[in-house]
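Structure, all three chains, one model.
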Amino acid sequence: MKTTHPQPGASRPSRSAPAYAAGTGPEDCAARSLNRRAFLKWCALLGGAAMLPGGLAGLCPAVAEAASGGDRQDFVWSSCNVNCGSRCVLRAMVRDGAMVRMDTDNLGADDYGTHQIRACLRGRAMRQRVYAPERLKYPMLRTGKRGEAAFRRASWDEALDVIAAKMKDVRERYGNEAFYLNYGTGNLGSVMSKSWPTDQTPITRLMNCFGGYLNHYNTYSTAQIATSMPYLYGGGLGNALSDIVNSKLVVLFGNNPAETRMSGGGVVYDIQRAKRESNVRVIVIDPRYTDTAVAVADEWIPIRPATDAALAAGIAHVLFAEGLADRAFMDTYCVGHDEAHLPEGVPAGSSYEAYIMGKGPDGVAKTPGWASAICGVPVDTIVRLAREIGTAKPCCISQGWGPQRHHNGENNCRAIAVLAALTGNVGIPGGNTGAREGGYSLPFPGFPTLKNPVAASISFFLWTDAIVRGPEMTAERDGVRGVPRLNVPVKFIWNYAGNALINQHSDINRTARILSDDTMCEMIVVVENFMTPSARFADVLLPAVTNLEENDFAHQGSTAEMGYVVFAQKAIEPLFESRSVYDMCADIAGRLGIRDQYTEGRTRDEWLQKILAAARQKLPDLPATLEEAWKLGVYKVRNPGKPFVAYKAFRDDPVANPLATPSGRIEIFSKRLWDIGHKWELPEGERITALPEYDEATEGQGDPLRKKYPLQLVTHHYKQRTHSTYGNVPWLKEAAPQNVWVNPLDAADRGLAHGDMVRVFNDRGATVLPVKVTPRIMPGTISIPQGAWYAPGAGGTDFGGSANILTSLRPSPLAKGNPQHTTLVELTRHSGGSHANAS
Amino acid sequence: MPMPARPAFLFDSRLCTGCKACMIACKDKNDLDPGVRWRRVTECTGGEWTRTAEGYRQNVFSYYLSVSCNHCEDPICVQSCPTTAMHQDGNGIVSVDPKKCVGCKYCSWSCPYGAPQYSERLGRMTKCDFCRDEIEAGRPPVCVAACPSRALQWGDLEALRGKLGQPMAVAPLPPVSATRPALFVTPHRDARPVGSTAGLKANPEEV
Amino acid sequence: MFHEWSLVLFTVLVQMAAGAMLLAPVASLAGLAGAGSGVPAGLAGCSRARRVSRGVALVAAPVMAASLLISLLHLGTPLNAPKTLLHLGTSWLSREILFTGLLALCAVVLAVAEGRGKGASPVLRGAGALAAAACLLSMTNVYMLRTVPAWNGPLTPLAFVAAALLLGAGVVAVAALWPHADTDADGGEAARPGATALALAALVTLAALVVHALALLAAMPGPVVPGGMGLATAHLVLLALSAGVLLAATLRARAADIPGALRLAGLALALALAGELAGRVLFFGLYARIGL
């Protein structure tokens, strides 16, 4: 590798230089504006003189547009490949090999459907990310205790030799099931460097060539909903949010596109546009008055976290009691809604109606009063909400991924979705399934990663358990899939573009203790851009390029009506000794004797060319060569049809188009879950129920632990970061400083004022950060924006504001997923040291 | 869009999610140091919670205002500047002549929008120049072009006046009469009138 | 809080000098009048008047020089300072800088003239007084910003004029009592005008104290200033003490204890200065503009 690249600081634009990049300097502009004025004059002449030759004058605006925007060849098309659900276009202005400005897709027309894919503040701050002082400069090997971040510089040869030797060693002693590819979404949506889905990365291909690895299923984002919804619908689809133009009412349970999918090309713009077009009434149900509530809601209904199933039950009670439930729909399309439609072999009183009306085994009617005591929504509000939902036809009931990220999340998300079935809103325009929204996308092939010969798969959340007690983990106790039980513990972890090794996993202190014992997991290889909290736990630390330093294609993110692909061209040469992950893997494959199998004789760019050719099979008008693609930058297609409606075919003809459930219907009562609930070994107090019953969560509303820790901590997605990505960017820290949201009532109880430093703690750990005293959060609930970089100080207290120092490793019953929002804590003024003490 | 005779901002507060893409696009284009914010997004939040027998009741509201320099028709910063460094050109664009500015900060005391932003590094005042280079080239200012919600727009002051009437403001903006800004604000549903103190600037550390 | 230490010092010191240069001619006139009671030829009165004029000039000149230097500390680019005179048309700050400069110039010329022993011409002294008045007027207007309601009321003129008068009176009192070889030949004769000046200073201080207290009370309910009550208390208590000490000094002067009166007058001036500095910190703390 060449080592001639300057320090990042040296390649940054000089601070003393004028604020104009070359080409847009004052002189330049004067010249351009002269040309432009002349051009416009010419246009006006043509347009004025010639009402005559049809079309000529009409052409002028388009031509003028091209003249104003298209003359900037000094921009390189690129993308922002992080895990927000969106995927934005960036255009890097490059001067003398350095990026001097980061623009976005803001050229040409902005017609909805092929509209500009405008990056959010994070993409716009990409320069400070690429040129961050935390960039890894060269490969490093651990010298101290694991986690202490004591490293020495190594050559690429030495680092890759160490990895290859350890791979052979671990395979020989434990077999391929001892290798684990940790969840990581730092590079999402690209083709050649993607870090997720975990079975589609360059490292996956390497491991598959090498004999395979222990799989995982589900994600930190969606464990409970992804597991749960298929039991109801056979899948988890939802209508596009653009479809709310057809709705009479929109009810968003914890769905917050304005803070989770911030791209001007994607969902937040879709919903705002649809709201503006139809002015449909929107209700947001959320513990926080979210920015979605600010921008599109007509009403905010605050709710205690983890109680959505109780609210849904209270609503269902009104629907059943007042005859607002759509019985005709349910009788045709559902199973288990009433006693007449229960599966075979199930005792009487097992239907949802029986559960709701107090005729089930618990004998408790789920009245609005019952629900209100749990969820904190006043009775009259529940009744009114139920009547609104029951009478608005069609009604879009939609949820985000917050309600499910709880210890009782599986039932929360299913209970919300069942409301859509009770009211007959499934499969129609203007309705929804109660799931999160769907949309439109283009088919685009990925990098072929071959097949994993290892069948075993664990929940993404139980990898720390697999390190400690792998061979004890079974299908019926730990949700192991593919095999009845694991054979070996995890001994070798690949952690590529991920911060879930420490920062984004739960219970940081316990995770750190597990990782710090290098006799358990013997090797951790981290492939990263920065010295992240996770990178500190590496044994071998490999510096990867950022996506601005390599060619790639970026497939679209979540959008309602537009499909697109970004052809991202390398904007600058790799900084320091950083390399593309494909090249690292190819060199490791060489050391393992499988290079040809890995590369098939292709360079990285040759793979891109091959994948582009494959993409053209499905999208023939894509550019043919990389050069043409880079010139085009972004390829957009507007959805030629109507907004996506989930399970429309099923609604139109349930017999011909059954759902992928055993009955082919919407299974409000799931016999499969009934069976699982009777078979699985669950800890004391946990249940898996066939109906979406409200179950009090561990560390939920009724937990006696509340006496000691009376506040429920949830986390929200923050403007500063996408999860933990961008967490080291000064501009973003300035725009959206880390803080904990606390209601004025809770703040007053504790004598706290806005801006005070506070200590948030429970038995698992403590973090120190400033408090934002705001009425925009439910009393009794506090929220820390997740993803801040863990910065341990003396005594293990975190001074980075990292929420996961407080969260629990206890998985949810069915999905074995992360209960990130069911965390009890207390809050006090922090009087000790400040950030200066950190590490 | 051709260079307007007198550029003005339009801000639709109903659409703003407070995302700050405008602010960072501006910081990136102009390479602004931490603490120097040519465009700022103010969160205005109010309402109260009360504990009742039936649970909590609340009347919380919140809205955002993205504000840079409004290139006022009656620019108090220009009037008060002792050196004439702060000046207004023929297009009404107010900017700082770096060769003249003495760094006395008097303009920033007087501006009711906090538009002049002092640079400790440069020892002088800096501020939004309406992206003169961009708009002369027929492109929108970068903040406008950045807005994911299309809440921020721009146009010609007189043309907009013809279309929308006189500029108006909402709390916590100053009354339009203070400096006659080239800023049209479409009020959020919860917007409070100018002078109201029902809503608080909820993010003082961010603006 | 609005931390502008250089401006706190600058405004208070300039106001002290300006007040003294405004009051010096007044004190001289008062001194002449007082001299009418049986003192032949008015010679003693002349010398007393010169004593005041000379003392004031010798204090004002270095104070103004120091103030101008201190004002440079507030600037980010002091090398551009000459350009601050470019906007006299609309900028009160530009005008303030002009008149402050003129005042400094007058003070220095007066001091040089007085230092030569012959005394400055009445025209020069008049010019100094005029510059002082213009300086005070422009300085007041600098802070009377229409976007800063707390400053854009009676507080600013009252605070500034009160500060100028009471500090100026203190300087005049000290100057009147300061021993000087040329003019002290007539011994005890210094006692009476000294006492008059002191009584006048005490009166001015008391009046200023009352005015200032009222103005502050009117302005305080506005923005909450951390430590504001402490500053207001310090301000008023120090000024009250200063007035009290001046009254004591008057008694000493009447008892012909000139050195004792001088010491007390000096103490009173120091107390007044401290009180005004506290008040000025509070004044800047009250800064809050309308809008964002």
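Chain B has one domain: 7-72+128-206.
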